[in-house]
């Protein structure tokens, strides 16, 4: 039966011990030379007539004492370094000690920051895999059932056509999710490339509204405002589409797209975000979030917002979120229920002109 090597016998431990020994030897040598050489000079200068044998014996005694002092002092100087290495190997190095010098405190902070970043990256990777398993599995299972029904059951022509439409819808949903995950991963690793051209923002919003109108089954979708700006229309269309799709998903009665002097606003009367935008707009974050009473993994819920924010930054702007007070931009609902506070995303763009 094989046994794990003790920690002190592992390659990392041996390299650490060698590094400490080398550094301590260097400190010892420096202290030895600083103490021994002046003694040699002073002895030869003050006692030039001392016999060589006596002088050599005296130098040996002085050298031994200097080496011993250097060894003890080097150990004292490196004690905090050795202690930090032992704590790092145990994984418990976050608590400082009263006698830690500033350099050791800085190292502890650097190690803690590195560990936190590694933990965040590992969590994102885990959430990415969870998204693949969960969100891709659902449309694949649905497509499999629909395909089996289409190929094995004697369905009338009208039902066969309906099943085919459902298969197409599930395939479109699957491809959109894969594209969104791929874009989020790419935008996380590199900058968004944009080709700026003068663009009619109202026409861009009208196109988004027309394309997404079939999804507005429970709500109304309207467009207001006029303006022009130098943007990448294809990339900006992607950002506005993401915001509008989210708004349609959670709105109660109405979603409005608006061109303003700041940029583009997407407003709805939904429940709003359950956490700060900076927390949710993180790709592949393992922390779950609840929106409109339904729980999602932030690995899925945050992808669209992350992509929108990166696109806004690529245009020299930012993405803002706030809860706007009730006002005239949205029409009053048909029911006598009180008007809710509005959810508003603002995709800021530089130099929007009427």
Automatic annotation (TrEMBL):
Chief place of localization: membrane
E.C. numbers: 2.7.13.3
Reactions catalysed: ATP + protein L-histidine = ADP + protein N-phospho-L-histidine
Topological category with respect to the lipid bilayer: Multi-pass membrane protein
Keywords: Cell membrane, Kinase, Membrane, Phosphoprotein, Transferase, Transmembrane, Transmembrane helix, Two-component regulatory system, Virulence
Residue intervals of the Histidine kinase domain: 131-353
Compartment(s) where it occurs, according to its Swiss-Prot or TrEMBL record: Cell membrane
MF terms (GO), sorted A to Z: kinase activity
Alphabetical list of CDD domains matching this protein: HATPase (cd00075), HisKA (cd00082)
Ranges that cross the membrane: 23-44, 56-78
Name of the protein this chain belongs to: histidine kinase
Species annotation: Deinococcus depolymerans
